[in-house]
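Query form — protein Peptide/nickel transport system substrate-binding protein

QUESTION: What is the three-dimensional structure of this chain?
INPUT:
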Amino acid sequence: MKVYTRRVVAVAAAGVLAGSLASCGDKTGSSTPQQTGEPPRQLTFKVATTDTVTSLDPAGPYEVGSRTLQANLFQTLLTITGDKPTPVPDAADCQFDAPTTYTCSLKSGLTFPNGHALTSSDVKFSFDRMLGLKTPGGIAGLFGSIATISTPDDLTAVFTLKKPDARIPYLLTTTAASIVDEEVYPANKLMPAKAVGSGPYALTAYQQGTSASLTKFKAYRGPRAAQNDGIDLTLLPDSAALSKAVTTGQADLAFHGFGATDLDKLRAGDQVQVVEGPSAEIRYFSFHFKSVVSRRPAVRRAVAQLIDRSAIAKKAYGDQVTPLYSVVPPGAGGHVEAFRTEYKEPNKAAAAAILREGGITTPVPLTLGWTPTRYGAGAKAEVTELKRQLDASGLFRVTLRSVEWPRYQQLARSGAFDLYHSGWLPDYPDPDDYLVPFVRDGGLYQNGYKSQTANKLLDQEVAEQNQLKREGILEQAQAVIAHDAPLIPVWQGRLTVVAGKEIKNPTSILNPLSYLTFSTLRK
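ANSWER: The C-alpha cells for Peptide/nickel transport system substrate-binding protein are given below.
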C-alpha cells in the first residue's frame, strides 16, 4: 500500500497574535482633529538601494528589485518566514490530498486594500494569468506541472498536477504566485506601474526608477504583519550614494549595491551597524551554444580548468563573497563541489591538454560580455580579472564587450557573446531551482545547452519524495553540468544591510533569497 506524505502547515499562535496586535497598534485614542483623510504615519522608515525595479506586476520580470517590492505588497497562498525554512500559511492552508492533487483552503474575510473580497476566483485568475502571459524574464515555466486549477467554492482552490511535483509548496511562496485582484488586473497584459495586493503593505506612491512609498495594510491577515507604519524606498545609482545616504541620515537603512571598499569604511566607523546574512545569490559565466567557439566542449572545459575563483573573490570583492564550485551552493540540499572534483585547482598545463585533445588551435578568441550596473559594483573588476587570467595563460585571447541592461539581456539571449557574465537568485529555497533554469529549454537566456542525461535526472528528483534519494540524484546532476561546463559558477554572495544605530532588529528583514521584507523593522 502506498502512503502519500501529507504536507500540512499550520499558523503558529505567535504569528496570529503578532498579526492581531499589528492590526490594532495604531489606535491612540487621541481626539486631535486630522488635517487630512489619511491616518498619521507614525513610524516610517527611509530605505535605499541600488536595485533595479522593472515591474510591480508579479506576472512580470523577476529580478530581485522587483521581488522586494512585490513581496511586501502582495500575499501568497504560502510563505516562508525568517524563523522557518519550510512553507507556512499566508492566505491559505494547503496540503497534498494525493501526489497530483494539492488543495488550498483560504482564510475567510480576506480583502484587498480597495475593499474587494479576495476569493478562490482571484487565486485561479492570478495563476491562469501568470501562466498565460509567460512573460520573458518571468518564471511561469517553473509551474509547468500544473494542469488545472478548480474552485469548488469561494474559499477552496484545487491544483491538479500533470505529474507529481514535490516543489509545489515552495513554488506557491514565490512572488510570481502572488494573488492579484481580478477586478483590477487585465488578463492579457501586464500592469507594471501599479499594485493591488493583500500583503503587509499597500502602495501609496510610485515613480518608476526613482522611488516607492508603502503604507501598512491593516487588514492583512498572515504571519508577516507590519510592525511599522510604512516604508519610503529610494533607488540610488551606486555604492557611494548608498553610503552617503545611510551615514547622513537620508536613509535609515540601505542594502544591495555596496562595494567592498565602502563596506570596509562603514565597518571601521561607528555611525552605523553593518549586518550580514547568508545569501542564495550566485554569479557565473555562461557560454552560448550559438557560438562556433563555445559549442566546442574542449573550449568550455579549458576555461573551467583555468578560472581562479579565489583571485576573483579577493581582487573584485575584497573577499566579501565566497568562491563557488557548483551551481548548487553550500547550504542547499545535495550540494557537492562538482567543479572542484572535475577540475581540481587552476592548471594551465591541464587546460592546454584539454584544448590539444579537442583539436583546438590556440590562442582561442573569446568575446566576453558584461553589463556595468546590473550586477553590482564589482562586475567590472570581476570580468577584467577573468580576462587577465585567460589571457595570461596564452591559451585564450579575450575581448571584453560592455552593454547596458536590458539590451545586454537581449544580446546574451541572441548569442552575441561567446561567454557572458550573469547572476542567479533562486525563486524558492530548493536546489532544484539552481539546476532547472540552466538545463531545461536551452537554459537561461536560451543559451542552447541541452542534456538528455541532466533532464532525466531532473525528472527523477522532482518526483522523488524521499529526500535522501533526491539529494543523491541532485549530486549526479551537478556532476553532469560540471563535466559539460555550459556555465562556470564563480561565487556565492552574502546579504549585507547597513542600518542606523537606532534600528533595533535589522537582521530580522534578511532573507536568503536576497529580497527584503520590511514588516519587522522597528526603532
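ADDITIONAL NOTE: The longest strand covers residues 272-287.
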